[in-house]
Design goal:
- Keywords: DNA-binding, Transcription, Transcription regulation.
- The structure is a single chain.
- The protein has about 325 residues and is α/β, with parallel strands linked by helices.
- About 45% of the residues lie in helices and about 10% in strands.
- Helix 5 (about 140-150) links the parallel strand 8 (about 135) and strand 9 (about 155).
- Helix 6 packs antiparallel against helix 7 (about 190-200) and helix 11 runs antiparallel to helix 12 (about 290-300).
Amino acid sequence: MRAGSVAVVVTEEIHLPSWDLYELSIPCTVFGKPQPDLADPWYDLRLCGMREPGSGAYEGAGLSLHTAYGLADLVDADTVIVPSVPDPCVDEGRPLPPELITALRRAHDAGARMISLCTGAFALAEAGILDGRRATAHWLHTAQLAARYPKVRVDDSVLYVDDGDVLTSAGLTAGLDLCLHLVRRDLGAHVANQLARRMVVPAHRTGGQAQFIEQPVPATDDRGLAPVLDWAREHLDRPLTVEDLARQAAMSPRTLYRRLQAATGVTPLQWLLNQRLRRAQGLLESTDLPISRIGELSGLGTANNLRHHFLKQIGVSPSDYRRAFPPA
């Protein structure tokens, strides 16, 4: 488990709307504030501007921003994050700065993990880093991304896509989901959960959750879902069904299905699978229990079934995942 260095690209223009400032602040918040009680060393955050360091501040949006690093510093980073690109590069097709594209290619070739938040995907796509890969961006921009870069397999329905060494997210809060996902990958579920708690945000939303759902926040009369979801988490080792959840919630299966999907963006069975995978990840990270026993405790069944879901949803086998989290 290792935090490493994180280089965040600051584009030439910072006459940014508030949401772009928000996306720039996300990696600064997650990776830039040391958390020595959770992991020491923490991440080494570097803001990398388009200009040479010391050549002046970026002015705009009522603020002044100095960066101590330039594009040349991307190549030495363990992780490179592009939070956004200027709106004219997305909406009007204005070319992205060639020096930025060259720096991103060099960083990728050097082995850096490449990340985009929202419209930052346009920069990774222009560099060819997303060719042949599944990727996402904010749903408002995915059609433009797909039309401009036909080699990219654009998925406009998910919060983020983890393709191993290249990860992309939708806009705004989905970028926070992805950054916390990176912390979970690097430092484990406990660290990510505690950091999320300090930030007063959900500890984990899976990348496959829908970007846009009809009712993102449960209505007042749906607050009764919380007890049944807590109950389900406590009984994941059982073979739960939609009927079991509905019975516990004292509602019909159809009503339970509709309300849970409206509140979470996924079906009840997908929600159960996500919770089982989270339980299995936590057990793999924190115990030396046999794989077969972890399959039983998480409700995923046999070791082969656990392995199947891990490979499909997470991209690695349970054994490989466990090796990334050696005991303290």
